[in-house]
Design a protein that fits this description.
Length: 355
């Protein structure tokens, strides 16, 4: 069985930050508080205090013995130890890209990051595959950057769960979605607290652990509501979107909740959904990552099938299970080998267009 990690992360080594500081000293500076964070456009990345606090910068990486996540060679060795054949790497610091406000700087930073992650993955001979960032708040340039990222060999583009003044069903985003379909570029919905994206529910908490409990599922529910009920998949039927880092247990509940609203009051949304929400799962518009130890996984498969579920490790972050993140996937007795192969790699291979 080929195992593809559909949502790992790169722990960007200092070369990215050093280059950003060199290119844009007016926008990017090193923190003076002794922590490994940056001050970007006057904001702390990450911001680990106040409402919606993010992860303190010294505590984001797993402390598992032997983890070696700062170089291509180290990540490949860690993948071998965890029985992972291919890793799709989302950003860590690079998650900041959609929140950057100066259009020229945002585009420049996205291009820098995309070239950096392409170069980082290049020596792996296809085992590490990078995900692009784009200045999605800034219109046409986001499409240009995504097109360049496709040429670099990046396999998806990161999209935040919501924009600062718009949800993901806003008509202004239709050209971006159309370009993603044209490029055969899937989109990965990925938020994170503390990086100055819109606060969805987390503004009620200042303790990072409380924030972390709700930030990822609330983010994904918000994004799914916009994309499904807002008719995005009807306007762009070839669009593939992954909802990431919230597990899969929430999906049957939420698809059923969307179904009820579609059935009873769907016509209240002008230019909205044209099909029952479950049909977007069946059509291949919606993919979701799981943690393979989730007790509810067999129930999700019974309700919605196994063709939309992808394994994810969240390597090398503190809440991952490395070096045993694939253990339950490989050994749990309550899923069939056919389902195991789909979740382990076949679905991600299809979603990301991997060889």
């Amino acid at each position: 069985m080929r195992i593809i990690d559909a949502d790992g992360h790169v722990a960007e080594n200092p070369t990215l930050a050093v280059e950003a500081i060199k290119r844009w000293p007016q926008h990017v500076t090193a923190s003076t508080d002794g922590t490994p964070r940056l001050i970007i456009e006057g904001r702390k990345y990450p911001e680990d205090r106040g409402p919606g606090a993010g992860c303190p910068p010294l505590h984001g990486i797993s402390t598992a013995p032997g983890i070696n996540c700062r170089s291509t060679e180290g990540v490949l060795g860690d993948a071998d130890r965890d029985h992972i054949d291919t890793m799709v790497l989302y950003p860590s610091l690079g998650l900041c890209a959609p929140s950057l406000e100066d259009p020229e700087f945002a585009a420049g930073f996205a291009r820098l990051y995309n070239q950096w992650i392409a170069d980082y993955c290049a020596p792996s001979k296809g085992r590490l595959r990078g995900v692009a960032v784009a200045p999605i708040e800034h219109g046409q340039v986001a499409i240009d950057v995504m097109r360049e990222a496709k040429d670099l060999g990046l396999v998806a583009t990161l999209v935040p769960p919501a924009l600062k003044t718009r949800n993901l069903d806003h008509p202004d985003l239709d050209p971006f979605y159309a370009a993603a379909v044209e490029l055969e570029m899937p989109l990965g919905i990925h938020g994170a607290p503390g990086i100055h994206l819109p606060k969805i529910g987390v503004d009620r908490f200042t303790n990072y652990i409380q924030v972390h409990c709700i930030s990822f599922p609330f983010d994904q529910m918000t994004a799914m509501t916009a994309l499904v009920s807002g008719g995005v998949f009807d306007r762009h039927p070839g669009l593939r979107v992954a909802f990431l880092e919230a597990g899969v247990g929430w999906v049957p509940f939420f698809i059923d909740r969307l179904h009820e609203h579609f059935e009873k009051r769907g016509d209240w949304i002008e230019h909205g959904w044209q099909r029952d929400p479950q049909e977007y799962v069946q059509a291949g518009n919606i993919y979701v990552t799981c943690e393979p130890e989730e007790p509810i996984l067999p129930g999700v498969i019974d309700v919605l099938g196994a063709d939309f579920i992808m394994f994810a490790s969240d390597y090398p972050h503190w809440d991952g299970e490395w070096p045993e993140s694939t253990k339950h996937l490989r050994t749990r007795p309550d899923i069939s080998d056919d389902v195991r192969a789909k979740i382990g790699g076949l679905n991600a291979q299809r979603f990301y267009g991997l060889n």
